[in-house]
Design brief:
Length: about 350
């Protein structure tokens, strides 16, 4: 049996018996780009990523071609000198322009700005750069600059995904405008919520929202906002209502097509080329991860692969709803801090320990 690295895409062994048969086998020679969008101020994060990726690359074995690149916006005037030095020293930075940062927004919020969002713009135009300058790459790993990536484990998964239309990540399906949610979708049994006098009196201030929508807004405010002092709960609910209405208006839908959390995801080469060709036409004023769903929606044959079940997750110390302990299934760990890198990352072994809760080993 001989092995053919067919075209520039996927490897399949050729078995010659009475007739020719193609037998699906893992690929032996993947070309992987790692695209990190970063703010100029995050020099420490970039240095950490360089160290981690370069330390883990030898553990992937021979045959794979891996390239790490950082895609940057326009630096502020006071950052230009440092930016030029880092670009000259590192050789791994691509400046695609656009805003370097966004106005302050809650970390897990879905939002729309009056101008291009910094990361969304860099994703679109960075992908266009890759499509033009790295057309031979089979996959692109889009990585947040505070995520740990276990390269050997990622490549193991990619070796079994023989498609150039791959979209692999923590897959989400969400409502953009939940103001009409029925209360019985939230409360089981339903009657206590429908008959709660305090809730009814409060939500009567928002006649354009259903009772369920009002309760969702209240919960959202209590989880993500500080509603003490001048910023009252009522004001917070009103702000949330306006924000979700604006989202739905901008995207033209009350629901978002399937998308991937911003911690990191993988696109196959056909998707990279598609986004690259259309970068100047795509919506870039919305939050990056939700925008992905709208970018992919018109494309035929996208193969979504979920990494939700403990493969991609937040670091357990982050206390986010996506936090999980590290296990031997973990591929990507998001929301790393300098402390968690220092305490848990073993560069020699390409291993991450998450506060004693388990480890990722190459």
């Amino acid at each position: 049996m001989s092995s053919l690295c067919a075209a520039p895409r996927f490897c399949t062994p050729l078995a010659i018996l009475a007739t020719i048969h193609w037998v699906a086998q893992p690929c032996c020679c993947l070309r992987l780009g790692i695209m990190v969008t970063s703010r100029w101020a995050e020099h420490e994060r970039r240095q950490t990523q360089r160290h981690a990726i370069h330390s883990c690359t030898p553990a992937t074995g021979s045959g794979h071609d891996i390239e790490l690149l950082f895609f940057m916006g326009d630096p502020h005037a006071e950052e230009e000198a440092a930016a030029l030095r880092e670009q000259a020293e590192s050789g791994d930075m691509v400046q695609v322009g656009g805003p370097d940062t966004d106005p302050p927004v809650p970390r897990d919020a879905t939002y729309v700005l009056d101008r291009p969002c910094a990361r969304t713009f860099r994703l679109a135009h960075g992908t266009a750069w890759l499509a033009a300058n790295r057309p031979e790459q089979d996959y692109v790993m889009y990585l947040d600059d505070d995520s740990f990536l276990n390269l050997p484990r990622l490549l193991f998964h990619l070796e079994h995904q023989a498609t150039d239309r791959l979209a692999m990540g923590f897959v989400m399906e969400t409502q953009l405008d939940w103001s009409s949610t029925h209360v019985c979708e939230l409360c089981d049994p339903c009657e206590p919520c429908r008959n709660d006098t305090a809730t009814l009196d409060f939500c009567a201030m928002f006649p354009d929202m259903s009772l369920g929508g009002c309760i969702m807004a209240v919960q959202n405010c209590q989880i993500f906002e500080d509603t003490e002092g001048d910023y009252t709960l009522a004001r917070c609910v009103a702000v949330k209502h306006r924000a979700i209405a604006r989202l739905a208006q901008y995207f033209g839908s009350t629901h978002a097509p399937r998308w991937m959390l911003g911690m990191g995801w993988v696109f196959g080469s056909r998707i990279v080329q598609y986004i690259g060709r259309n970068a100047n036409r795509l919506k870039v004023r919305g939050a990056a991860d939700v925008s992905l769903g709208f970018w992919l929606a018109p494309m035929e044959g996208v193969r979504f692969v979920s990494m939700n079940d403990g493969y991609f997750h937040d670091h357990p110390e982050s206390k986010s709803i996506f936090a999980r302990p590290c296990t031997d299934q973990s591929v990507l760990v998001h929301r790393m801090t300098p402390a968690s890198w220092n305490a848990g990352f073993d560069a020699e072994k390409c291993e991450l320990t998450c506060d004693g809760a388990g480890s990722i080993e190459a």
